[in-house]
Amino acid sequence: MFGLGMAEILVICAIGLLLFGNKLPSLARSLGKSLVEFRKEFKGIEEDVRGSVR
Questions:
Q1: What is the pTM of this model?
Q2: Domain boundaries of the chain, sorted by first residue
Q3: CA–CA separation, 51 and 54 (whole Å)
Q4: Residue 8: is its pLDDT beyond 70?
Q5: Is the pLDDT of residue 54 over 60?
Q6: 13 backbone φψ class: left, alpha, beta (φ>0; ψ -120 to 50)
Q7: Collapsing DSSP states into helix, strand and coil, what is residue 54?
Q8: Close Cβ partners of 4 (under 8 Å, ≥ 6 residues apart)
């Protein structure tokens, strides 16, 4: 995953836990919702482009 080993991933997770603490689950949830919205919008734009090409 991005050229990172298991030790590096654990260090990043530990730093994230120290920085965000209890806010980490809500931060991950909002990031997930944003990603879903982005995919929906991208899919809509892609369908519009395909419809105009035909």
A1: 0.55
A2: 22-54
A3: 6
A4: yes
A5: yes
A6: alpha
A7: coil
A8: 12
